[in-house]
Amino acid sequence: IYRNEKKPVNLFVVTAQPPSSGKSGLNNMFINPIRKEFERINDDNAFERRRLTRNIAQIEKDLDKETNPNGNRELQARLKADTEKLKKVAFYKHSIDDGTAEAIESVAGRQEGYFSLISAEATTIEILLGAIYGGGKSNLGMYLKGWDAEYSSIERAGRETNDAWYCGCLAVAGQSKSIEEIMKAGESGQGVNERMLMLRERPKLGFRDFNDEKTVPAALSLKYESLVKNIINSDNVKLSFCKDGLESIRNYRQGME
Questions:
Q1: Is the pLDDT of residue 45 over 60?
Q2: What is the DSSP letter of 23?
């Protein structure tokens, strides 16, 4: 809760590291528990999803043939109820690592506006910003509105209408080119780079000691997996800033101003 308004907790962050610095291994360590939990949820919802999809298709056929106004209203009510139920058992795609802006828009439309981009490769940023497939141009609506959970009504010829409060998370550990592409896109003045937390850490190459390898303790890994499951399966959790926290934010913003 911020200024009496409910806002989602999200972050756009990209970290630059050179090749062979262990980005993929670190990414998998954090993402695999999330991926497994969403796979379990999708499997559990599969039967109910198929049943509701069949029901909706049958109701739509019945509506085409129904001539009685009362019967039509009853079918419309059933259609609305089953459509709402279907949203609750949707097939969740927890993250994308190779998606154009249009594909991300489609996924977000099926997930009540939510989308995530998580990757250990710079190509995720390049594709999103149109550097690979778009000739340097891309529809940045999802990127811009997803940062602050803005409402968007998207209408395209030949494509499904998507109306939602869009909210995105972006976490990319790529090469320096990731940051370069963001800064280049920011030249358009649309606020691309202002939304991104960009980090360039000191490379570990040349400082690693493979004879003193440290692994993540098993107990810590289990604790992290349990945390992930609790977050994914919890009801809405509301966080609020304390008075000192709000003052710290205002002071920081004033300093930036």
A1: yes
A2: H
